[in-house]
Amino acid sequence: MTVRALVVDPSASAAVRLAEVPDPVPGPGQVLVDVSHASLNYGDLNDARSGRIPVGAVLGSDAAGVVVRAAADGTGPAVGTRVVALTAGAFAERVAIDVGALAEVPKGLEPAQAAALPVAGVAALRSLRAAGLGPDKRVLVTGASGGVGRFAVQLAAQAGAHVIASVGSAARGEGLTEAGADEVLIGLEGLHRPVDVVIDSVGGSQLVAAWNLLAPGGSVQSVGWTSGEPAVFAPYATVGPAKTLTSFVIEGEAGADLAVLTQLAAEGLLRVEIGWQGSWDHFDEAAEALRGRRVFGKAVMALGTPL
Ligand SMILES: NC(=O)c1ccc[n+]([C@@H]2O[C@H](COP(=O)([O-])OP(=O)(O)OC[C@H]3O[C@@H](n4cnc5c(N)ncnc54)[C@H](OP(=O)(O)O)[C@@H]3O)[C@@H](O)[C@H]2O)c1
Q: How many angstroms does the Cα of residue 23 sit away from the middle of ligand 1?
């Protein structure tokens, strides 16, 4: 038996193609999930070309669907439960998923919205936690128009922080004030007062400028590097009162954090902005839109159209 999946293929235009792969065989602590929706992350585009995911392997990390076989060890959700997961090889019609990597989708949350949460939502939640949030903090979010950025703006605002959202153009700032940003800036133009926390998705010269704005005791979380530019620090830029630049990556199982995020979304406290939605047949279009900075928030694919 086989299922359809988006697999890495460097000869394809977006380095990905639809293919038949073997039906997954779940381990004892895994459920089988029929995936209805999956979201595309900037990291997937890098993974498809970087060699980190082998040629022929299934791409993707974010999936939502329905459990069709419970875990053999008796843990996790029952058959018929709607779930969302952060798991390797998410872009397949059927995926075997560790029970610790998923959360139940609460009533009131659509599967497309749930599918948008894992990588971007967990990165935003954990990087803010790592930086240390608080009501008196000034938080700068770069790449605020994107997946991680929009969630980070909302979560920081909910914690009572003063949130400064940095975007590439005025148009890309749409909706961020409503999401909770106190200031929306193009680049870091006009920002002169120090900030306590930076959630940085852009890297390059913006990371350097953000570092220079960081208050003593503050923290930059280096989440991504969409600019692709090197970061050049002026001599002595890193010498002075202690402040930190911390590398960030999602590690370990995400189920508990996904439960937090899905609950917030179901209660309407975390808005899931979907800027591109379509069939996985149109993966190339979604990938191009994401790379071209035309997606407001997340790109979500519906699975299940014929090859
Ligand atoms: N470390 C981790 O565990 C982890 C987890 C999730 C994501 N990430 C990384 O975080 C980054 C953001 O991910 P995402 O899913 O939020 O991506 P996204 O939805 O594509 O958003 C990225 C944002 O970065 C900005 N951007 C894109 N190209 C740029 C450029 N050349 N110069 C300046 N800004 C640029 C865009 O904002 P404007 O159009 O407004 O400029 C865009 O909205 C990626 O590098 C991703 O790989 C890492």
A: 33
